[in-house]
Amino acid sequence: MDLFLWVKSLHVISIIAWMAGMLYLPRLFVYHAEAEAGSVQSETFKIMERRLLKAIINPSMIAAWVFGLWAAYEISAWQDGWFHAKFTLVLIMSGVHGYLSRCVKTFAADKNTRPPRFYRILNEVPTVLMVVIVILVIVKPF
Fold it and tell me: Which of 28, 66, 76, 103 has an alpha carbon within 20 to 30 A of 48's alpha carbon?
């Protein structure tokens, strides 16, 4: 049981880091979209976005998946309805992660065509997913 508590703790820590990055990166995009391409401000945002993605978001997502699957195995969650719903939403969150990664590349190439409002709305997607996932895990409604 002690090992499971460590795995669960590392899973939660990984999720906190992943979500912090997933909530901050689109906010950087809002400001970056307002900056003139090639400006000092734009170049600074490129560095911040790349470092956030490579140093925090990517590693923490991988850790969240590894420790999450390990924890699910330990408690035999595969047969529970709440777990299937959570798993589906985590797949969607991973897809959003992939889209944000593509946005980093688009901004790095100075090819962004989306307005700041688009990124303000996009910023809410990880929040909504996170809220539903947490409710599923804590309440286990089915």
Answer: 66
Sequence-ordered list of residues with C-beta below 8 angstroms from that of 136, at least 6 positions apart, any chain: 82, 85, 86, 89
C-alpha torsion angle, residues 32, 123, 59, 20 (rounded to 10) = 100
| 3-state SS, residue 109 | coil
Question: pLDDT tens, 40-91?
Answer: 999 999 999 999 999 999 999 999 999 999 999 999 999 999 999 999 999 9
DSSP annotation of 36 reads P
Note whether 38 and 102 are within 8 A (CB).
Answer: no
Q: Answer yes or no: are the C-beta atoms of 118 and 75 closer than 8 Å.
A: no
For residue 46, the enclosing domain spans: 2-139
| C-alpha–C-alpha distance, residues 8 and 55, integer Å | 22
Q: How many domains does the chain have?
A: 1
